[in-house]
Amino acid sequence: MRNTAKFTTAVLAAGALTLGLTACGSDKDSGSDASAPLKVAATPTPQGEILTYIKDKLAKKAGLELEVKEFTDYVTPNTAVQQGEVDANYFQHQPYLDDFNKKNGTDIVAVPNATVHLEPLGVYSQGVKKLTDLKKGATVAVPNDTTNEARALKLLEANGVIKLKAGVGYEATPKDIASNPKNLQFKELEAAQLPRSLGDVDAAVINGNYALEADLSPAEDAIAAESPKDNPYGNFLAVKKGNEDDPRVQKLAKLLTSPEVKKFIEDKYDGAVVAAF
Predict the structure, then answer these.
(1) Per-residue pLDDT tens for 174-186?
(2) Left (φ > 0), alpha (ψ -120 to 50) or beta: where does 192 sit?
(3) What is the pTM of this model?
């Protein structure tokens, strides 16, 4: 999940140019060759680890040759799929993908029945043990991409720290805060930078995958964390529209939601990552 939507003008221009060149290029997708290796982009933890487990333990028996390509940001895995550099990706949730497609004119879709896991978003702090202990004027770092920033603010609201305006959805920003009794200050950072910010802020709301990479556990270290119940932020396998029925993609979808992978998630992550199937 874990997946940024507030791009600079330069990044948007470069992305639009690259996507335009791709659209003008060959129509042949790597997904058109059912005998070729399936190339999947993923963030390293836990998605890359889950895919590597499948590659090492399950793929051969299923007749699937799998190549895992890891990225540390939430943009490249989608542009790589759109451009045909990889066949699929596994790193994001639906609100993020919807926002990405809208802002970039891409046509990436979730593979049906291939939602794999949830990484509970957590609040972490080196100075306080509960959110109510934050002092007035404290600084809280949040992800700067649209959907995850809204997700972070909703988590803070659920814990009584702030109150958002009525009807605010997946695009909430600090400007949509209706009540802020502690006058908290918000520092918007790229999601990958949030763990490194903990020494400079009073608290940070960190995506589960980046927390794990920083040896932080949502189950043990977070002073507040999302509930997995009815949570819309499950991470899934995604492809460029039209490639959902690629037999290789279908094989991977089945493996990603297999009992073996569920057990792997439960054993390895001890609640920091939760199976969504």
Answers:
(1) 999 999 999 999 9
(2) alpha
(3) 0.73
